[in-house]
Amino acid sequence: MGTYDVIIIGSGPGGYVSAIRCAQLGMKTAIVEKYNTLGGTCLNVGCIPSKALLDSSEHFFNAKHTFKEHGIDLQELTANMEQMIQRKNDVVSQTCSGVKFLMDKNKIDVHYGLGSFVDKQTVLVSAADGSKTTLTAKNIVIATGSKPNFFPGMEPDKKRIITSTEALNMKEIPKKMLVIGAGVIGLELGSVFSRLGSEIEVIEFAATLLPTMDGTIGKEFSKILKKEGFKFQMEHRVQNVVNKGKSVVVTALNKKEETVTFEADYCLVAVGRKAYTEGLNLANAGLTANNRGQVEVNENLQTAVPTIFAIGDVVRGAMLAHKAEEEGVFVAEFLAGQKPHINYNLIPGVVYTWPEVAAVGKTEEEIKAMGIEYKVGSFPIKALGRARASMDTAGLIKIIADKKTDEVLGVHMIAPRAADLIMEAVVAMEYRASAEDIVRICHPHPTYSEAMKEAAMAATDNRAMHI
């Protein structure tokens, strides 16, 4: 039996970061991981491998479509899917090995096996070889993450009807792929295969792409992706998905309640993710999961049992790796008697397509519903000299500010390197900056960041200079 100050169940970004911070703060820490590699969904079958394939497919797309205009001539260009997958696997392996290095460096004990509660202070670790280890701790953190979601009728068979996990290990480039869901996962993985030559048709229940983001972004991004060859079937409710052997048929109801069918080589089910708490035996610790599989927590991320915490995808809020990391650090510092801080309104969201999509703060629709008087400034990326130089002219930056105080309430963008650009907005909003504050900051030229200043100018008094 091992005795610890903290046991963390799950080694994804939330879990392993929490373990590191606990160790830094002097706590004897253990981490329990069900699988034989550390890093959770994000590092193994999520954020990291998907970005690796997105980057590889982007290089191929540019080689095929833009290199010639840059004066680079190529012949007999082909996509080597096997090598792309191998490179992706190498990136994953290196990243997961890095997490193991960090565990060793910080003297964190790693226990491989399924972690389950014996009681509120005891965790049983059941290893793959059948061995069992009992651990006890003053505090326990649940960081078991999430898994792909699906609804009745679209159950994945992992052959033709696949989730993001299988999509990251494809052995061939589909001629056509149906994607159920126009959210982040569907559009990112759809982009990978679209760039490699697949016909992509997206079937979405909502009326717009990225339905949780600002309406302007969904409309603008739809135009961009359609130019790249995406087809969209909006306001369609999928009834069932059937594997026909060498093809897949999706049956759906359109907004007129008419039955329609779609056929392709593969169907990617990308309707979000759901909390993963199976096997934890929560009841033994005096806990229950809600109807979404999540564990309820208070403002300090404590469950109904004060010595048991939960973070990341198993609690409320956006299912984002960086949100889980912040919560992991929060718990560690709370246990150390510090006063940690998370502003959930200012956790940025990113879609790693090209151009990238990023947002922070409130959408225009949310601000309108709150009854706040506001003003909007936007600036098209095509007006930037830097964008013309790199041939990345699609997109815009939109800034929403309070009409009375000029405080920035939300920033939404489709832009090259939006994933990095959004951090200017996050920093500004953490300090409750006004649009005028952003205007008064000198931005380097020529850069994509100039669009932030121009959008702020447009929001301040409609004085953007380059449109």
Walkthrough of the structure:
By secondary structure, this protein is α/β, with parallel strands linked by helices. It folds into 3 domains: 2-148 and 274-342, FAD/NAD(P)-binding domain, CATH 3.50.50.60; 161-271, 3-Layer(bba) Sandwich (FAD/NAD(P)-binding domain), CATH 3.50.50.60; 346-461, 2-Layer Sandwich (Enolase-like, domain 1), CATH 3.30.390. It has 13 helices and 22 strands. It has helices spanning 13-24, 40-45, 47-65, 81-105, 164-167, 184-195, 215-227, 321-335, 364-369, 385-390, 418-430, 435-439, 450-461; strands at 2-9, 29-33, 109-112, 114-119, 122-126, 132-142, 146-148, 161-162, 176-180, 199-203, 231-233, 237-243, 248-253, 259-264, 266-269, 273-275, 308-310, 349-351, 356-361, 374-380, 396-402, 408-415. Strands 1, 2, 3, 4, 5, 6 and 17 form a 7-stranded mixed sheet that branches. A 5-stranded parallel sheet has the order 8-15-9-10-11. Strand 4 and strand 5 (122-126) form a beta hairpin. Helix 1 (13-24) packs parallel to helix 8 (321-335), helix 3 packs antiparallel against helix 4 (81-105) and helix 3 packs parallel to helix 6.
Task: Summarize this structure briefly.
By secondary structure, the chain is α/β, with parallel strands linked by helices.
